[in-house]
Amino acid sequence: MDLILCALLLSLALAFSHLVSANFYNDFDITWGNDQAKILDNSQRLQLTLDQSSGSGFQSKNEYLFGKIDMQIKLVPGNSAGTVTAYYLSSQGDKHDEIDFEFLGNLNSTFGSTQQQTSTLTPCSGIPNKLCFLWMELHLWNADNWATRGGAVKIDWSKSPFVASYGNFKAETCSASSDCSVNSWYGAEALESSEQQKLEWVRENYMIYNYCSDSKRFPQGLPAECTR
């Protein structure tokens, strides 16, 4: 059985206020899936399950303005075609913004073949100088209408239940409930040339899927951020 442990570092800015180690009971609420979502190992591990009845998901109790968040994810092993394991930040409302990591399942889930989708964050749906507070979302769901080879490969329910887990959550953040300054966030410098080159190297060598080039998924036109 292939077990994948992916450490995702999500940096929203260069400034932060405090470090919070994981306690999923204190930091997250179940949003859907009921018994399909569980907190285990003395609140240090969060587990999501998908079967034919339902997927599952959690949402952070806090909203975040800026900071750095670490999370380790153990993806669905083996034949995970049609499933999506997600880790993202999202604002509220119809015109919400996201910073989004979605791991799309494959017939044989290995790190090299696991696809990653990254969405860009637009500043509060185009409203300049407005502060965006984002919720953290952790989901596992059925997306076999598009997730694997454009929907050509469907979920093999004989392999269910599908299980993904999250752990080692650490946050250096300014949340909506925190007393912290955003001055250094506004003054954060852009990436240096060497840092930009490293980012481009990762994009060229590890980005398998780019929704901004997926005209089949968006037949009415690509999302607005793709042309910015």
UniProtKB/TrEMBL annotation:
Main location class: secreted
Keyword set, alphabetical order: Apoplast, Cell wall, Cell wall biogenesis/degradation, Disulfide bond, Glycosidase, Hydrolase, Secreted, Signal, Transferase
Active site: 98 (nucleophile), 102 (proton donor)
Gene3D superfamilies according to UniProt: 2.60.120.200
GO CC field: apoplast
Signal sequence annotation: 1-22
UniProt-annotated location(s): Secreted, Cell wall; Secreted, Extracellular space, Apoplast
Enzyme Commission code(s) on record: 2.4.1.207
Annotated PROSITE patterns: GH16_2 (PS51762)
Segments forming domain GH16: 18-220
Keyword Cell inner membrane applies: no
Enzyme class, broadest EC rank: transferase
Top-level division of the source organism's lineage: Eukaryota
PTM comment, free text: Contains at least one intrachain disulfide bond essential for its enzymatic activity.
Gene Ontology molecular function, alphabetical: hydrolase activity, hydrolyzing O-glycosyl compounds; xyloglucan:xyloglucosyl transferase activity
GO BP: any one term: cell wall biogenesis
Role this protein plays: Catalyzes xyloglucan endohydrolysis (XEH) and/or endotransglycosylation (XET). Cleaves and religates xyloglucan polymers, an essential constituent of the primary cell wall, and thereby participates in cell wall construction of growing tissues.
Family statement: Belongs to the glycosyl hydrolase 16 family.
Protein name according to UniProt: Xyloglucan endotransglucosylase/hydrolase
Originating organism: Cryptomeria japonica (Japanese cedar)
